[in-house]
């Protein structure tokens, strides 16, 4: 079984405002039976990764969860350098997570990687309070072609 996960295409949202942030495209391609959709593409920001890591930690028991790149407020160097370092760190984090069978069993991870649901929507879905099951939410997103549309948009 092979799972490729790439974190790419960082984009600054709300640039120039006090609430600007960077989000990253997460592209997943797999033949693993663990995943509902075999390819997906979503955009996530750093604080969503922080939430995901916290949830994985809660549910993983004694299994160590990989570290995220640090949240630096005093970064010395260019913003582009910082964003690229963080992108690499987020990619390494996800690569390690998808190789761990215990972490792979967490449905929050699957919704994070394969749907564009917000964090509260993911929580509601996992707790059975959403309008869809985890599988339905992932398939709905896959069928809507959102993942492919985003992938196509970024091609030069």
From TrEMBL:
Keyword Protein biosynthesis among UniProt keywords: no
Predominant cellular place of this UniProt entry's protein: cytoplasm
Keyword presence, Transferase: no
Gene Ontology terms: biological process: intracellular protein transport; vesicle organization
GO MF, any single term: phosphatidylinositol phosphate binding
Key words of the record: Cytoplasm, Endosome, Lipid-binding, Membrane, Protein transport, Transport
Membrane topology per record: Peripheral membrane protein
Localization (cell): Cytoplasm; Endomembrane system; Endosome
GO annotation, cellular component aspect: endosome
Domain PX as annotated: residue spans: 2-119
A Pfam family reported for this protein in Swiss-Prot or TrEMBL: PX
Homology family: Belongs to the sorting nexin family.
Protein's recorded name: SNX11 protein
Organism lineage string: Eukaryota, Metazoa, Chordata, Craniata, Vertebrata
């Amino acid at each position: 079984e092979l799972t490729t996960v790439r974190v790419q295409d960082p984009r600054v949202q709300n640039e120039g405002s006090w609430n600007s942030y960077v989000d990253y495209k997460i592209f997943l391609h797999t033949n693993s039976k663990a995943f509902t959709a075999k390819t997906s593409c979503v955009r996530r920001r750093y604080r969503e990764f922080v939430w995901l890591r916290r949830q994985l930690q809660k549910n993983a028991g004694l299994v160590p969860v990989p570290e995220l790149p640090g949240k630096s407020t005093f970064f010395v160097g260019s913003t582009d350098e910082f964003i690229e370092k963080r992108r690499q760190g987020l990619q390494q984090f996800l690569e390690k997570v998808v190789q761990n069978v215990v972490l792979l069993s967490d449905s929050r991870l699957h919704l994070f990687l394969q749907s564009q649901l917000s964090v509260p929507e993911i929580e509601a879905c996992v707790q059975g309070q959403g309008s869809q099951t985890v599988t339905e939410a992932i398939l709905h997103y896959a069928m809507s072609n959102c993942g492919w549309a985003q992938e196509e948009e970024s091609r030069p």
